[in-house]
Structure formats: C-alpha cells, structure tokens
Amino acid sequence: MKIFKRPSMATLADVDTDAALAEARKLIGRRIEQPARRAFLQRSLTLGGLSLLSGCSISDNATVEAALMRISRFNDAAQAWIFDPTRLAPTYPDAMITRPFPFNAFYGEDEVREVAEAGYRLEVTGLVADKRSWTLADLRAMPQQDQVTRHICVEGWSAIGKWGGVPFADFLRRIGADTSARYVGFKCADDYYTSIDMPTALHPQTLLTLTYDGQPLPPKYGFPMKLRMPTKLGYKNPKHIRAIFVTNTYPGGYWEDQGYNWFGGS
After folding, report:
1. What are the residues whose beta carbons fall under 8 Å from the beta carbon of 134, sequence distance 6 or more?
2. What is the pLDDT of residues 111-160, one digit of tens each?
3. Cα(106)–Cα(255) distance, integer angstroms
4. Could you write out the DSSP letters of every residue in 153-189?
5. What residues have CB less than 8 Å from 26, skipping those under 6 apart?
6. Rounded distance between C-alpha atoms, residue 71 and residue 20, angstroms
7. How is 61-109 classified by DSSP, letter by letter?
C-alpha cells in the first residue's frame, strides 16, 4: 500500500500572494448578494493575509472573484500543510449532546430526500482495487465505532452529536484504495457533491456514519450514510451518499465551486 506524503511548501509558492492581495484590495466595492458567503470569505481570507477585508463589502465581479479564488487556493495549501493527520478533535460525554441536533442542508427540512434501503448500493470507483457495490448490510458487518463530536457550521453555529459507523480509513483499505491519491469524492442522493483530501479521509475520526445517537441514521441527518469529519466544517460532511471515488483529478464540490474554500478545516 502506498503511503501518503505531506505536501511540500512548494505548493504555497505557486501563488503570487503579493499580486493577489494587491488586486483584491484595489477591487473592494459592491457587496455580494449572498451574505453567508460574503461573511465566510471575509473570515477565511485571513490565512491569505486579507485581514483588512474584515467588515468590508466585496465586489462580486469576475475580476474580484478570480482574486478571491487565488487567495482561497493559498488558504487550501496552507491548511493542508498545517493539518496534523494524527491530532484528534475534542470528544464529549453523552450529556453534552445537542438535542435536538439541528438540521442543515442547502434546502429546507421539508425537502429531505427519502432513500429506500431496499435496493440501495454504494458505488465505488476510481483508484481502488475492488469496485464492487456495497449494501448497507455489508457496511454494518464491518467493525463499528462511535464518537461524540462537535459539528461546526460555516454560518457561525455549532452542535454536538453522537455518530456511529465504519472508520473511513478501514473502508478505504478494504476496497484497496490508492492512499497516495490526492482526493476522495462523494456524490449524494440529494444532488450534493463534495471532495476531501486523502489525509483527512484517513484521519482516525473520519467516519462513514450509519447511526445517530445509537439509532439508524434518520433521513434528515443523511440516511443511508453520512461522512462525519470533526476536523472539517459542516459543508464538507456529505449526506445521503450514493457514490465514492478516489482520484488525482480535482473534483470540486457544491459550495466549493461557488467560492467556498475547498479544504474547509474547522
């Protein structure tokens, strides 16, 4: 099995940060129509050195978007460099679980997708040795793990929940995934999609979640399965997963393709 090597600092040198900062500062102007996204960009740009943007409005024209995306790529590289694949996120006692745990998605709770267990198959493709489909029974037969961790949303709230399922690293090794590949991508039954870096995929707390609070995962929390990563912001945790693929080609994501940082560390 190939071993992942931490990216070198050369990846950070690919970004002309001085030029990007100067361009972004010059083009501060009209406000973006999506307040949550604007606030997210203002917070996340600090890693790229744009602390001067705090409290400012940012133009949404194409040139500004390009400047912001260059800073976003710098942030991704910086976060990947400082990410420790062995450092654990805090865990909590059951008494601290947030009840009820909040619903979150890019649609309303009355639009939650109902996925039938009968006939469900998890597709596995890409740089893996075993491309067979998986049933929920197959996944439930693997060793399970519980965790009580905090979900942190980019919109500023957080909640503690209890998740159970298969350690994702175990699943990747079971299917013979190339763990030197750069990305793991996810396609979901609610048309959501996202992708993560391989070190996060192999993190010991990254969980292919099948239960919530000791019960089968409810539809509003992502049935039949959700990827739970306490080291990532909420939008990086896909629900209703129907396909997983391993690749070296950048897959993007639903929010990432609209300007959110791709790495999304919490």
Report:
1. 121, 122, 124
2. 999 999 999 999 999 999 999 999 999 999 999 999 999 999 999 999 99
3. 9
4. -TTS-EEEEEEEEEEHHHHHHHTTB-TTSSEEEEEET
5. none
6. 7
7. SHHHHHHHHHHHHHHHHHHHHH--TTPPPP---GGG--SSPPP-SSS-G
